[in-house]
Amino acid sequence: MATRSREEISAFADLVEARSTALLRLAFAVVGDYQLAQDLLQEALVKTYVAWPRLREPSAAEAYVRRTIVTTAISWRRRPSFHESVIEVLPEAEHVDETDRLTTHRVLWKHVRGLPPRQRAALVLRYYEELSEAETAQLMGCSVGTVKSQVATALVKLREQVGPESGVLFPDAQAVTR
Fold first, then answer.
1. Domain that holds residue 108
2. DSSP SS3 for 116
3. Of 16, 24, 56, 65, which sits 20 to 30 A from 167 (CA to CA)?
4. Neighbours of 27 (CB within 10 A)
């Protein structure tokens, strides 16, 4: 491994300190498991550190990490040995008001975890991370049309699986598949 300058090490450490929480949220949204998300983020950060001298714009390092998270998660899902652990029961909510929200959340994430990796990544980046289609396409390494197609297909599958409640789950995305 090449020797890093103090400036490079400091810049990388600043990125990790400032953005780790947001990057962990993205990793969790992509893989749906907290421990796996931690592993995914760790691997993405290692890959970023190794690639740091090759980054043309260190200011774009967060985008590099995000793309690495998405592509690494997709490659993990393609491995025959990959087994995703599913949480069957969420902890009980202390407040009765939270029951509907938790139930909806559990049902939705159960179905999102069942989507193919590229559809899940496109959906998470567009609606959870609130990225534009162009930003999502850049992170996924594909065209904007592919992002639109992946999101539309994912939403159709989710609506079919969830049933009549899908209007409640995806109120802003109704026009996508019409």
1. 96-177
2. coil
3. 24
4. 28
CATH number of domain containing 66: 1.10.1740
Could you tell me which of 22, 20, 73 has the C-alpha nearest to residue 45? 20
Q: How many independent structural domains does the chain possess?
A: 2
Written as one letter, the residue type at 126 is: R
Distance separating alpha carbons of residues 44 and 67, to the nearest angstrom:
9
Work out the percent of the chain whose per-residue pLDDT is above 70.
74
Q: Are 108 and 173 in contact (CB under 8 A)?
A: no
H-helix or E-strand containing 152?
Answer: helix 144-162
Backbone φ and ψ of 5, nearest 5°: -80, 160
String of DSSP letters for 102-114: HHHHHHHHHHHHT
- Spatial contact of 37 and 28, defined as CB atoms under 8 Å apart: yes
pLDDT tens figures, 159-175: 888 765 555 555 555 44
* Of 101, 150, 162, the residue nearest 124 (C-alpha): 150
Q: What is the pTM of this model?
A: 0.53
pLDDT tens per residue across span 97-142: 555 555 666 777 888 888 888 998 998 899 888 889 999 999 889 9
